[in-house]
Amino acid sequence: MKETIKRTHFAKELEENLLGHKVNVGGWIEDIRDIGKIIFLVIKDITGPIQVIVDPEEFPQIRDIPRQSSILLSGKLQKSKAKEMKVELKLEEIGDIYHSNHPLPIDPTGRLESAIDKRLDARALDLRNENVSKLFIIRSIALEIIRKTLREMYFIEVNTPKIIGSASEGGANLFEFDYFTNKAYLAQSPQLYKEQLVLALDRVFEIAPYFRAEKSNTVRHLTEFYSVDIEAAFLDYYDIMEIMERVIKNVIIGIKDSGLIDFTKNEFIKNAIETKFERLTYQACIEELKENGDRVEYGDDLSDSSLRKLGQLHPGFYFITGWPLKLKPFYILENEKDHFLSDSFDLQIGYLELISGGSRQHDPSKIRNRLAEQGLNPDKFSEHLKVFDWGMPPHAGCGLGLDRLMMCLTGSMNVREVVLYPRDPYRISP
Questions:
Q1: Rounded to whole angstroms, what are the CA distances from 398 to 194, 239, 264, 281, 383?
Q2: What is the pTM for the complete model shown?
Q3: 14, 12, 9, 40: which is closest to 24 by C-alpha?
Q4: Residue 320: which of 287, 348, 354, 301 has the closest Cα?
Q5: Which of 207, 221, 271, 279 could make an S-S bridge to 216, C-beta 3.0–4.6 Å?
Q6: Mean pLDDT, to the nearest integer, of 14-34?
Q7: Average confidence (pLDDT) over 245-261
Q8: Is the pLDDT of residue 1 over 50?
């Protein structure tokens, strides 16, 4: 019985110190170059390419294996004459082969371009394109840095329910479904849970998917999206802005150090590491927009066109603070000096909103009043409000759109590029 070959090394690990050693590698066949007396086989794994030298008289079957088939190979490592590779594998044994059936739905080498919808329909194959897989390696690095940065500041990672019995923020854009004999909803945010948790856990964060039943078919909206949510006791919205600026800068530095993206070609991202994020008040934004011909009045929300104009004026990262209270959810704290305004902020990069946050109202009687002002029934929030009678400290927090952040940092033009299996009003598979 043939002994199964088990991989001993990834492409990245094949260095000159292994010359003359037998190694086992595995990956998919990216290319075959047959020049008669010798065959150059290139296989790839997630860490890179491996050149394999094949004697066709010894291994004639290699010519019949389709490109993109997965394969396990064994051989001795030798110096390579190719300029782009220091070492190569001299084939000694072929292990298991897992054939690909042609024609394939897309060309995963990227030599032939496919529309994004066609690529998403074959996403698992699409990921063999290193420009695509690189996006998700970067996303993994970002997640690791976000967790590390928050843990260093004593934040505890939590997991809150995604099946809820009522609208957490009072919004109408919820996915409703039958839950045994009751109605239930997919969570649009962990807001109420994370506020409750600061009562005892002090500082919490969650990285998880959330759901909004909005029929938005744009390059920046999805119905299932990943959010990085934080909440902390005894902090205000200025503190949260400082924390999130530190998080984003650490992510940029970590990605830069990985060598996967050259940020020197993006002045705004490069400068974000070295300079403080700009801070603009809502009022200053209104005045600046009016000076530039925008028909917007104090108290109005900022439309997409207004934000695009602001983004042209401020193309990097910038905070907008002091939004009108009426534009914010019921749990946002009103400004002590001007009750028309809120202690809140949004973080933008150009026209795109990345973060929304603020100080939270922690007086239960005032929360009830705010709920009523927004046409919401306080009785439906009784489970949440009772926690505020148990010694709830002042607190603040925010939510960061992870997918949008990845879109910006990788220079992607469509948020679907940086989500493995995106969900929008027209896509529910694969």
A1: 10, 11, 30, 18, 22
A2: 0.94
A3: 9
A4: 348
A5: 221
A6: 97
A7: 97
A8: no
**Mean pLDDT in residue range 283-299:** 96
What length is written for the chain?
Answer: 430
Q: Where are the alpha helices (DSSP H) in 122-236?
A: 123-126, 130-152, 191-201
Give which of 256, 196, 243 is closest to 382, Cα–Cα.
196
Which structure tokens are listed for 406? 């990845």
Res. 283 pLDDT band, cuts 50 70 90 = very high
Instruction: Specify the pairing of strand 87-98 against strand 48-54.
Output: parallel
CA distances from 160 to 21, 182, 195, 397 (A): 50, 20, 11, 16
Token pair in block for residue 73: 């190979």
Q: Rounded CA gap, 192 and 385, in Å?
A: 9
Where does the pLDDT of residue 3 fall: very low under 50, low under 70, confident under 90, or very high at 90 and above? low
Cis bond upstream, residue 49 (ω within 30): no
| Phi and psi angles of residue 331, each rounded to the nearest 5 degrees, phi first | -90, -5
State the average pLDDT for the chain. Answer: 95
The predicted-structure confidence for 93-107, as pLDDT tens digits, reads as follows 999 999 999 999 999
* CB environment 229-248: b (16+ within 10 A), e (fewer): bbbbbebbbeebbebbbebb
Task: Look up residue 405 and give its amino acid.
Answer: L
